Amino acid sequence: MYRGIILKQQLKTCANKWFASQAAAAVQESSSPKLSELKNGLKVVTANQGAYGARITLLVKTGSKDDAAPGLTHCIQATSGLTNNKNTAFLTTQLLSALGAEMEVIAGRENIMYTVGCNPNVVKDILVDVLYPVVLGAKFPWWEVRDVVSLMKYQKAIAETDPCYLLMESAHKASFSNSFGSPLLCPDYMMGQHTTEMLVSRHNSTFNLKNMVLAGTGISQDVLIDAGLGLENLSTGKEAEQTTAPKFVSSEVHVEKPSDLVHAALTFPGASLNNKNAVALSVLQHAMGSISSIKRSSGMNHGVVNAAVESATNAVFNTSTFSLNYADTGLFGVHVVAQKNDFAKVMETTAAQCSKIASSGLSDTAIEAAKQRLKAKICMSTENSSQTVEDIAVQAATIGTVATPSKIM
Amino acid sequence: MRLSSIYKHGFGSLGVTVDKQIVYTMSAMEHNPIKGVVSKGFPNVIRRTKESFLVVAIPALLCYLSYDWGTKLQAKLDRKDPKMYENDV
Amino acid sequence: MASSAVSRLSNALRRCTIQPSRNIFPRRMQSNQAAVKVNTPETRVTQLANGLRVASEDSGISTCTVGLWIDAGSRYETNENNGTAHFLEHMAFKGTANRSQLDLELEVENMGAHLNAYTSREQTVYYAKAFSKDLPRAVEILSDIIQNSTLGEAEIERERGVILREMEEIEQNQQEVVFDYLHSTAYQGTSLGLTILGPSENIKKINRDDLVKYIKQHYNPSRMVLAAAGGVEHDKLVNLAKEFFGTTVSNDSYEATPLKLAPCTFTGSDLRHRNDHMPYVHVAMAVEGVGWEHPDTIPLMVANQIIGSWDRSSTNGAHFPNPLVRRMAREGLCVSFQSFNTLYTDTGLWGIYFVSDNENIYDCTIRVQDEWMRLCTELTDLEVSRATNTLLTNMALMLDGTTPICEDIGRQMLCYGRRIPWPEMARRIAYINVNDVKKVLGKYVWDACPAVASIGPTEALPDYSNIRAKMYKVFH
């Protein structure tokens, strides 16, 4: 009842708060990210680009690579926002919508990110009343864990219609021998096999403040620090131990699907995020050609691989290079799509081109152009607050510092 | 619905698949019921009357004439002959 | 930032939203979101002598988006030339008198810039995203594309095939198809009922002359806006515009130019395409709303927000404050639904798109209409304030980066003739109360003839007269 009254009051005042924030938004013009660490171990990082709304991300350094039972991370993601030590699932949802906020949970190989977009003036309320309980106090009651299975199945079915998802899963499976190659989404044989005990023990061991980063855009750092100071470590776990870096292995994985198009990825060991070579590999990625920036372009001028394959075959195809940087490893590769009849030829040419680049290198002009493209991509990504908040959170979590675009250049 | 049919196709299904059927409907409220009564309807009445005037009028006239002739003839035939009753008291 | 170099391909990161996602609609459908941004940096507008409007907002950052918003789209076409606007968009980056396609691509790629274009029913947009220091080159390239496109015969032939393939692809996308159906039945007999891509017969016969004629008719400066956002100085942009677009003479006097838009009448009607081989029925149901400039737009948007949107992948549906979301999630009646408010110059479509299967489609339709009727009669104050809060947040968060801001400037310049400052817009939204919403719904939804379009196993979808009869309620 009491919460209900608060809810009503918040509703009435929230809309008016938009006008109050006018001045606040204008002040925040400086955009270099600021990082500080609180006494309780929580890292707080902010970057502002004068955006009107605020986005906050609470990042937890754990992901599918830590899954003792495959799919545990997926299950944690699917149960997020359900009953916790402060609110029921009902109240969490009601509070969020009363404050006009929206929450998104993204689970990856090594991070889980809880992102909320909202009015800058209600950030503190959201953090204290909603986000902290959701992340730190999750309870995982068995009936909710049971009910969430159908959702997980649905999410997986949707994801599997995307060949890129299947391809990247296979690429990781083929490239890493240990749990780093374990699937992001719950495999079929584990659906419904996760228990409250498994989830709670995982939560206790990894969801602690030392393992977390609170990142925000469009909000001053003082607010976040203020909201973060009162937190106590609810879980008993220690900071994640440094695990041995996953080893790259050469192998291949095939997934058969009835389709005219064949997707393939040719992968090489990449660089980790704090490795000097990460930037160099990103330049190489752009030199070899990633996704073209011109709508319906011929793709001929975007990197050297496309051009080489085009001159060697007359097939319909596309290649794009990717470079993924994780905390202590990386994956670099070429994604090839072609029609099934031409596929062998296209793949051979691509592989030949890759080894040619490896042995004889690239021309200076190609590298210059690639640098330019990479710089543009980095600068453009700082425009967007949802991308920025993810970036600064990941950086603060994995390398402990936040790089400015100018520093990278 | 027969039980065997439910067993075969599932409840609510007749086991018929229809494809490539497009149905257009327009709301009844979108129609204007008296639109063009004077401007289009009245001239139309004249046109239609003109077109079928002879088709209707000639048989109607013939019918009228034959009926008229028939009834008159009947009346004539039904008349009593006064001569037959001359000697009645 | 370094980690942004991590290719997004790694969608390693599968997303699960707690709030139902707002942006399911592809760009073509997206005109419904009238988003406005903080006018912390002021939007400055200048009109050149030939009628071209230049609008920009300077936020002083190192990148920028600059683009041309043109008041032309499939609405300006006829049955005979439907598809030309979209065809032209395809020809845009295929080379100009000054540079070949490969030269153009090389130049843009080496600048690290992006080039993009899209066509909607009322607008055609070409924009470039680049470093602020490359602004002059970006404007020059845009002007070159618009004014000196070669439109070579060989390229036209090749694009014909590309468009036909694109058409096949779109036919696989049920949502696109259903919205094309909705337009064709709601605006039957008018040019808004035409599709953007055009029928394949037209695409097969469009030739260079048609394209040139279309450019002459529609791409004239008085109907264009050069919009920019990011690190852009307005005076510099105006000078660039004068240099590269100043010479184009306004040819409004061109005899065939339709100077005024023909009104597009809405017809309450129904189009159902039955195909029992499909697993789901896709239904779009809409009443006639209002155009961009009409004051009733905002209450309709608020009403949209109250209905909300939902799909099976979002968690917590059963706890949502939106009653329809709750109902659908609890009863499992549909796969997804989304309310929409598509705005055009003088008309609009306000309605809902939902996907369900043959067994549930009847109940699903009834629930949707019950909710509409509830909004007209029993709407509460609390729901409206909740919806305005969410709407404000959504609008503020949507303008994220130079491209969305630039799109916003361009679109508002064409729709309103000015940029609406954020405080004005925010106040207009925040001051909406329950009576405004009820009044507007009573005007546009209560006892109105909806337009319904559906595709899939539509057998159990209620008959049109039944749907129409549920658009009002008798109380006792």
TrEMBL record, chain A:
<dbReference type="InterPro" id="IPR007863">
    <property type="entry name" value="Peptidase_M16_C"/>
</dbReference>
<dbReference type="InterPro" id="IPR050361">
    <property type="entry name" value="MPP/UQCRC_Complex"/>
</dbReference>
<feature type="domain" description="Peptidase M16 N-terminal">
    <location>
        <begin position="44"/>
        <end position="188"/>
    </location>
</feature>
<protein>
    <recommendedName>
        <fullName>Peptidase M16 N-terminal domain-containing protein</fullName>
    </recommendedName>
</protein>
<dbReference type="GO" id="GO:0046872">
    <property type="term" value="F:metal ion binding"/>
</dbReference>
<feature type="domain" description="Peptidase M16 C-terminal">
    <location>
        <begin position="197"/>
        <end position="374"/>
    </location>
</feature>
<dbReference type="InterPro" id="IPR011765">
    <property type="entry name" value="Pept_M16_N"/>
</dbReference>
<dbReference type="Pfam" id="PF05193">
    <property type="entry name" value="Peptidase_M16_C"/>
</dbReference>
<dbReference type="Pfam" id="PF00675">
    <property type="entry name" value="Peptidase_M16"/>
</dbReference>
<dbReference type="GO" id="GO:0005739">
    <property type="term" value="C:mitochondrion"/>
</dbReference>
<dbReference type="InterPro" id="IPR011249">
    <property type="entry name" value="Metalloenz_LuxS/M16"/>
</dbReference>
UniProtKB/TrEMBL annotation, chain B:
<dbReference type="GO" id="GO:0006122">
    <property type="term" value="P:mitochondrial electron transport, ubiquinol to cytochrome c"/>
</dbReference>
<dbReference type="Pfam" id="PF02939">
    <property type="entry name" value="UcrQ"/>
</dbReference>
<comment type="subunit">
    <text>Component of the ubiquinol-cytochrome c oxidoreductase (cytochrome b-c1 complex, complex III, CIII), a multisubunit enzyme composed of 11 subunits. The complex is composed of 3 respiratory subunits cytochrome b, cytochrome c1 and Rieske protein UQCRFS1, 2 core protein subunits UQCRC1/QCR1 and UQCRC2/QCR2, and 6 low-molecular weight protein subunits UQCRH/QCR6, UQCRB/QCR7, UQCRQ/QCR8, UQCR10/QCR9, UQCR11/QCR10 and subunit 9, the cleavage product of Rieske protein UQCRFS1.</text>
</comment>
<keyword id="KW-1133">Transmembrane helix</keyword>
<comment type="similarity">
    <text>Belongs to the UQCRQ/QCR8 family.</text>
</comment>
<keyword id="KW-0496">Mitochondrion</keyword>
<keyword id="KW-0812">Transmembrane</keyword>
<dbReference type="InterPro" id="IPR004205">
    <property type="entry name" value="Cyt_bc1_su8"/>
</dbReference>
<keyword id="KW-0999">Mitochondrion inner membrane</keyword>
<comment type="function">
    <text>Component of the ubiquinol-cytochrome c oxidoreductase, a multisubunit transmembrane complex that is part of the mitochondrial electron transport chain which drives oxidative phosphorylation. The complex plays an important role in the uptake of multiple carbon sources present in different host niches.</text>
</comment>
<keyword id="KW-0813">Transport</keyword>
<dbReference type="GO" id="GO:0005743">
    <property type="term" value="C:mitochondrial inner membrane"/>
</dbReference>
<dbReference type="InterPro" id="IPR036642">
    <property type="entry name" value="Cyt_bc1_su8_sf"/>
</dbReference>
<feature type="transmembrane region" description="Helical">
    <location>
        <begin position="52"/>
        <end position="70"/>
    </location>
</feature>
<dbReference type="GO" id="GO:0045275">
    <property type="term" value="C:respiratory chain complex III"/>
</dbReference>
From TrEMBL, chain C:
<feature type="domain" description="Peptidase M16 C-terminal">
    <location>
        <begin position="205"/>
        <end position="391"/>
    </location>
</feature>
<keyword id="KW-0378">Hydrolase</keyword>
<comment type="function">
    <text>Catalytic subunit of the essential mitochondrial processing protease (MPP), which cleaves the mitochondrial sequence off newly imported precursors proteins. Preferentially, cleaves after an arginine at position P2. Required for PINK1 turnover by coupling PINK1 mitochondrial import and cleavage, which results in subsequent PINK1 proteolysis.</text>
</comment>
<dbReference type="InterPro" id="IPR050361">
    <property type="entry name" value="MPP/UQCRC_Complex"/>
</dbReference>
<keyword id="KW-0809">Transit peptide</keyword>
<dbReference type="GO" id="GO:0004222">
    <property type="term" value="F:metalloendopeptidase activity"/>
</dbReference>
<keyword id="KW-0482">Metalloprotease</keyword>
<protein>
    <recommendedName>
        <fullName>Mitochondrial-processing peptidase subunit beta</fullName>
        <ecNumber>3.4.24.64</ecNumber>
    </recommendedName>
</protein>
<comment type="subunit">
    <text>Heterodimer of PMPCA (alpha) and PMPCB (beta) subunits, forming the mitochondrial processing protease (MPP) in which PMPCA is involved in substrate recognition and binding and PMPCB is the catalytic subunit.</text>
</comment>
<keyword id="KW-0645">Protease</keyword>
<feature type="domain" description="Peptidase M16 N-terminal">
    <location>
        <begin position="53"/>
        <end position="199"/>
    </location>
</feature>
<dbReference type="InterPro" id="IPR011765">
    <property type="entry name" value="Pept_M16_N"/>
</dbReference>
<dbReference type="InterPro" id="IPR011249">
    <property type="entry name" value="Metalloenz_LuxS/M16"/>
</dbReference>
<dbReference type="Pfam" id="PF05193">
    <property type="entry name" value="Peptidase_M16_C"/>
</dbReference>
<keyword id="KW-0496">Mitochondrion</keyword>
